[in-house]
Amino acid sequence: MELSQRKEKILAAVVEHYIKTGEPVGSKTLLSALDINVSSATIRNEMAELVALGFLEQPHTSAGRIPTNEGYRYYVDHLMGVRPLDESVKRQIEAGVSIKNASPEAILAKASEFLADMTDCAAVSTTPSGENATIKRVEFVPVGTRTGMIVLLTSTGVIKSKVCRSDVDLNSSMIEKFYNIVKSSFLGMPLDEIDTATLQTLVASMGMDALTMIPFVSAVSDLAQEAMKTMVMLGGQSNILRYRDDYGTTAYELMDFLRRGEPISRLLANSKEDFDVKIGGENKFKQLENSSVIMAHYNIDGDNRGSIGIIGPTRIDYASLIPSVRYLTDLVGELLTQTLNDD
Amino acid sequence: MELSQRKEKILAAVVEHYIKTGEPVGSKTLLSALDINVSSATIRNEMAELVALGFLEQPHTSAGRIPTNEGYRYYVDHLMGVRPLDESVKRQIEAGVSIKNASPEAILAKASEFLADMTDCAAVSTTPSGENATIKRVEFVPVGTRTGMIVLLTSTGVIKSKVCRSDVDLNSSMIEKFYNIVKSSFLGMPLDEIDTATLQTLVASMGMDALTMIPFVSAVSDLAQEAMKTMVMLGGQSNILRYRDDYGTTAYELMDFLRRGEPISRLLANSKEDFDVKIGGENKFKQLENSSVIMAHYNIDGDNRGSIGIIGPTRIDYASLIPSVRYLTDLVGELLTQTLNDD
DNA sequence: GTTAGCACTCGACTTCAAAGAGTGCTAACG
DNA sequence: CGTTAGCACTCTTTGAAGTCGAGTGCTAAC
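The joint structure predicted for all components is written out below.
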């Protein structure tokens, strides 16, 4: 749907004014904000049409207009100026994500916290999906006479460890056998190929040793499962209170939604583009019906992607936050790639 | 300060009624809740004295009474019935913390979440302090030609790992040297004795090898520092919205306070008893002036302690939540001790 | 010491009116 | 035909005034 240039100007002004103040915008206010040579009556006419088209709405008859979700959508898609990020903001973001010698989890956790502080929104990020990751290394660290810690390292730099308990006392030949199994069956293996079926054939092939090795092998498998799961890092939940009125009654639901990692990772993984904005009900989660999500995805070595995003009210400042989220996400992606390939 | 038996009855009734309803309690309401054979006028007289003594207050002249912090304190110290926990509640808690083969962090994180859900409050827990912990094991896992991962395991079961980068290509003699250093200087060493001074003398004693070993040694030291830090696990921040009115304007401050782990660990570490209740301004944190904290401490092998607690409004249900927090904390302590000694 | 009775206080809720913001419509204008 | 001035209309907000009711504090009597 195409709008006349004047309608676009008016829509943009309404959106921007409403984002700034949170108050419905009237025709006179618009008149002074707009450098158009028409009267308020004309603007009223235009606005009435924008209401009919579904881009604006009135809270009540005698109030100004506020954008509908469709209004925000049109604004984001067509009207929003994509001014490049200010150099000083770039510096700030660079400083915010810089952290050295850190694990991917720590990097993303810090990025979430920083992004939340910067945007006054709740921020989320997910670790790279383990779908295309392989097992890079498995180590066994004896801890007690019958227990040891198994450490698994994936090609995506994720480290998982788990204490595992043997039914009999450990001895060096057992450990040697374990490393042989690791070498022949686990190293280089894609995480998602380690399922119960492969595990069973593996155990079957071990013959006599099966019984003693089962705890170790299944621990490795557990760790692989765990490493595949994307983790969700949260930041700035307290910022939800900042826009409490905008969320209305969904504030509690929203906070509760953020607690549970799983739906968030689905939310973030849902979008196929490098970058995505979901406005209000556009995402199918009821808890987010009064919220907008701005998210971007990073890639590590091509195809392992994770996401970073912010969740705010629908009247979030799209124009200035979108570039920030994108820039930060790109930076984090680079940082992660670099950490990973830094051998 | 001693109160007459009748005053105690009245104070207890006011506290309990206010906790339940959140409404100021009047003399007539009290009359029906209390099985005392006096008139409402007598109760009024008693209440007036309780106000004078500082245990009750009136929001305004013509309203009922609500407890002051001192009132809650007297209630908790002298009046609250310490009924033993219901068997079904015990079962529920046992089910809530049960989790197998998990790290201390995972156990505590789960306990926090569960406690938050059960009590409708925000819940926090801290990992055991590393003060009396020693280094149990250090492993080096090569990752690339110049990088490797160092894994440190403490006597308290904490596992920390870190990628570390050498200035020259790794070879087996370097790794051997590293393990020798670990064996002679790190194993069994208390974490808090690894400071820059000891590190310097250690490096000095290495002579020729100092340069190549420095990255590894300092990584171990970093990990030791990290392992000493108590971590804070949070649960149920969203529950703050549940009692939003009670927190008044401090709701945001409270959430923000919860974000930062450091003050929380100070708060929890501050109390010397096995168990502690801080009511309103009793804890010196301004952000908590409208909140009460119920916390308990667990011990692992005698002296390594951590804490678990809940943070709610001052009109939190002390009588039923205190036993729950204690029971859960004891359980978690046992679980951690067991996990640790399960060699 | 306890109680009944009563005047009094003060917030909560309702009603009403006035103010103000903003609209939609109509008629006139270029 | 698009634009505009003018105006009646609608609906929220604000504040004042009034009522209600819960609850108190005090006094006088038991």
